[in-house]
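Margin note: ligand = adenosine-5'-diphosphate.
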Amino acid sequence: MTDPGERLRNSLTADSAPGGPPVEFDSPIAMEAMRATRVLHAAHQEPFPVPGRIRVITVANQKGGVGKTTSTVNLGVALAMYGLRTLVIDLDPQGNTSTALGVEHTVGTPSIYDTLVGDSPLVEVAAPTTASPLLRCVPATIDLAGAEIELVSMVAREHRLRRAIETYLSEVPADERPHYVLIDCPPSLGLLTLNALVAGDEVLIPIQCEYYALEGLGQLLSNIDLVRAHLNPGISVSTILLTMYDGRTKLADQVADEVRNHFGELVLSAVIPRNVRVSEAPGYGQSVLTYDPGSRGATSYVEAAKELAERGAHLSPAAPPPQAVAAPPPPPATPPLAALVLGEPAAIQRLTGRHSS
Ligand SMILES: Nc1ncnc2c1ncn2[C@@H]1O[C@H](COP(=O)(O)OP(=O)(O)O)[C@@H](O)[C@H]1O
Ligand SMILES: [Mg+2]
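Resulting structure:
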């Protein structure tokens, strides 16, 4: 009888032989070890392609608990592990992204609040992470909860995050400039999410494979349309990611089909399964990729990040027209904020010019 360890080593070596036949693994542990080896080693051998231009991606869905934070964290770590410089911005006062990346975010820590409400440059608040030397995180402290209100009276309040990111990108040396900026939004359509939609070029919407998954999405999409019309002509929904897919239920398949019918090519083929390791990882201040690289959760986030990166490689280098968003908008008679934050029908009508009086 051969030693199981040796059998596993032999299998792994045989499996990695170029052109060799796929090897059958005869135990779940061996399968998991093989997946972990792939996640960790492939990262050094097969970097993801560099995007055609810097991608600023806003991860938004006003529903809570759909996987925004989990996706921001794990896609961010995957992109960085596979060679792409990534900056993750935590824009949720709960600070869950900061927790999951093991970044300090107690009250008083320099954070995104200091950038939005104060004038601290992002370069001063971006912290290194233990997950990867290529990954930095701008943490959120609970102070950010007050920012929704404090920002209301500020000049160019919807543009503050965009300005901060533009300054950051123009000031950091080229060899430190991120390829990806991922912004994790809070579960609301308030001024923080609005700042993120004005700052981004793309929106990534995580959709949980559950009943009611599409409910409320219309409101998010019409808000994105309003932002495109009035504040950021460069924004569009580029990516939909199906999360918490449970293959044992018919419902998950029905939701996935419905989302694919509705959004077509925007939906990544990689689907994130419901996986307990994904939900355990933040408790250890880690992403699932570092916590349990052999888990289904880790491999599916690597697949999703790979697809995202491959799509990004085809983007044209030309940035969206900066002058359209760089110039501060003239102070509107009716602040768009009212329409966007409150969803007040009259304000939306005024904003969209459909009001007759
Ligand atoms: N694929 C998954 N499998 C299992 N649990 C998950 C998965 N994705 C997210 N979770 C858990 O679901 C909860 C909500 O996820 P989260 O990313 O915080 O959502 P959001 O940021 O949209 O509010 C968290 O407890 C998280 O750990
Ligand atoms: Mg969250």
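The pocket of magnesium ion (ligand 2) is lined by residues 68-69, 92, 96 (CB under 6 Å).
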